[in-house]
Design brief:
The chain has a single domain, classed as Phosphoenolpyruvate-binding domains (TIM Barrel). The chain is 40% helix and 14% strand. It contains eleven helices and eight strands. Helix 2 crosses helix 4, helix 5 crosses helix 6 and helix 8 runs parallel beside helix 9. The longest helix is centred in the last third of the chain and has 18 residues.
Length: 277
């Protein structure tokens, strides 16, 4: 890393909340995307287990393994110099005992290169969070719609809509803060509740489908740039890359079929970097 480039740290995020500076967070699963997003000024990159749905073709995040997460985290770390890299703890990697959770999170940090891990859930994972923090592993919490519990929750839908559920989520947020999380993702909850949580905890909140009152926002990058067909309704598409890719590939196919590409003019092969397959 260049001496002039300083990594975003978890302490920086708390300071950003204190001064009212919003935190910009996106997902990344590979070095190229991570490099481009960092160039755009993104503060935090999440190597999400959403990779299972976005890139690997699964219907949920549940099939994603620890080995998958380590490999993708390594790639994202290699592509960055400034952004804080957070890696998801995939399904069941922190529920088989505290020491097993430490070993799994430790692999994401030591082998994957993550600067922090994200753990889904509230009261049930507080002991895990506390143990990881005690071991020196920074932890980001995740409340509301927790995709690893999608079958238990009855699908991908807004959570904590009743007063009782809202109170329970507020209690979970306080418990996670007490356990030592440095930030909490709030997914698919009412905007008014996200506002209450943000005001109630000292750590930053990062919203996704939770309205404008959180201390920061996160989207799945492939949704935000228009590479997916079924993005949630709260997603704003900042580009339509799927259409651009299809158009470019269609032109390529047509030119190959007609013999227009490659042109007859001899060109240098320098710069291809061996990408023939």
């Amino acid at each position: 890393m260049s001496p002039s480039v300083t990594r975003v740290r978890i302490t920086d995020l708390k300071l950003m909340k204190a001064v009212g500076e919003k935190i910009a967070m996106l997902t990344a699963y590979d070095a190229l995307t991570a490099r481009l997003l960092e160039r755009a000024g993104v503060d935090v990159l999440l190597v999400g287990d959403s990779v299972g749905m976005v890139l690997l073709g699964f219907e949920t995040t549940i099939p994603v393994t620890l080995e998958d997460m380590i490999r993708h985290t390594q790639a994202v770390v290699r592509g960055t110099r400034r952004a804080l890299i957070v890696a998801d703890m995939p399904f069941l990697t922190c529920h088989a005992g505290l020491e097993e959770a430490v070993r799994n999170a430790g692999r994401l940090v030591q082998q994957g290169g993550a600067h922090a891990v994200k753990v889904e859930g509230g009261g049930l994972v507080v002991k895990v969070v506390r143990r990881l923090v005690d071991a020196g592993i920074p932890v980001m919490g995740h409340l509301g719609l927790t995709p690893q519990r999608v079958h238990q929750l009855g699908g991908f839908r807004t959570q904590a809509r009743s007063a009782e559920e809202a109170d329970a989520l507020l209690t979970d947020a306080a418990a996670l803060e007490q356990a030592g999380v440095f930030a909490i993702v709030l997914e698919a909850i009412p905007s008014s509740l996200a506002c209450r949580v943000t005001q109630a905890v000292a750590v930053p909140t990062i919203g996704i489908g939770a309205g404008p009152h959180c201390d920061g926002q996160i989207l799945v990058t492939h949704d935000a740039v228009g590479l997916t067909d079924d993005a949630p309704s709260f997603v704003k598409r900042y580009a339509r890359l799927a259409e651009a890719v299809v158009e470019a590939a269609t032109s390529y196919v047509a030119e190959v079929k007609t013999g227009t590409f490659p042109a007859a003019v001899t060109r240098s092969h320098r710069g291809t970097q061996g990408r023939s397959s």
